[in-house]
Design goal:
Shape: globular
Oligomer: single chain
Number of strands: 9
Helix content: 25-40%
Radius of gyration: 20 Å
Order of helices and strands: EHEEHHEHEHEEHEHEH
Number of helices: 8
Mean pLDDT: 94
CATH superfamily: Phosphatidylinositol (PI) phosphodiesterase
Strand content: 15-25%
Distance between the termini: 42 Å
């Protein structure tokens, strides 16, 4: 259970300061911080769920091809800057194990059914709990498909703006959480989501002032590239709570009447 005043910490694409994002190495480094959760991005590449963020090659792997035009085996042969390779979703599930929450962000088309199949198979094979997983996307149609196929897995609604009807879009998706852009984070949106029983997570928060900002607005957690910053922030908040509790339960005897 979280200490009051702390924020749930998702390591954004693993720990990107130690290894290339979305690799098993980055995930392993994030787990060393004892983070609450890890976020990854997935694409359906030739019928396989591969963990990658960009829709094209070029930023981390030489080339300019669309991921969806590639053969999955050819993509997995390419080395990333840290020396790792593009992992499959199953490899990530096995690496994370039961150590923390895993947020699986659907980036490309036609992923929902494969995600449902992969999670069902992994839970069946290992005895893991569906509650450990959170499927999120800007593609709310695929979130709705996920609801139909595997309702036991939580859904996170990604927003890059402030809708006119605030958090109403989460209701037909029976969502667990709203994932809100730091650029458009809004106290009214957070409050509306909270009234609807939703958690609020903000992306991507890498600055201490921004941590204070989103906490003051009522956010429940953040996605961050800086797990150490989050650990320090939460440690400070926990220390404050303990100090206040000690002050309230001061055992010193009362003075003379």
């Amino acid at each position: 259970m979280q200490t009051p005043g702390t924020l749930f910490c998702f390591a954004h694409r693993g720990y990107r300061q130690k290894a290339t994002e979305n690799t098993l190495q980055a995930i392993e480094h994030a787990l060393e911080f004892d983070v609450d959760g890890i976020e990854i991005d997935i694409w359906n590449i030739g019928g396989q769920l591969l963990v990658k963020h960009d829709r094209r090659l070029g930023r981390l792997i030489a080339g300019s091809e669309l991921l969806t035009d590639l053969c999955p085996d050819a993509l997995r042969e390419k080395l990333l800057p840290c020396g790792g390779r593009v992992p499959t979703l199953r490899e990530v599930l096995e690496t994370v194990g039961n150590h923390c929450q895993l947020n699986i962000e659907i980036k490309g088309p036609n992923c929902a059914a494969l995600v449902a199949e992969e999670l069902e198979a992994y839970v069946r094979d290992t005895g893991a709990s569906f509650e450990q997983y959170l499927v999120s996307s800007f593609d709310h149609r695929q979130l709705y498909e996920s609801l139909q196929l595997l309702p036991d897995v939580r859904r996170g609604v990604l927003l890059g703006s402030i809708p006119l009807d605030l958090a109403a879009c989460a209701e037909p998706l029976q969502a667990y959480s709203m994932h809100l852009s730091l650029d458009f984070v809004d106290a009214k949106l957070i409050a509306d989501a909270r009234r609807r029983g939703l958690r609020n997570y903000v992306f991507t928060v890498n600055n201490l002032d921004d941590l204070h900002l989103v906490a003051a607005m009522g956010a429940d957690g953040v996605f961050t590239d800086e797990p150490q910053l989050m650990m320090n922030y939460n440690a400070a908040r926990t220390a404050e709570v303990l100090f206040l509790n000690d002050e309230e339960q001061d055992p010193r005897p009362a003075g003379p009447v």
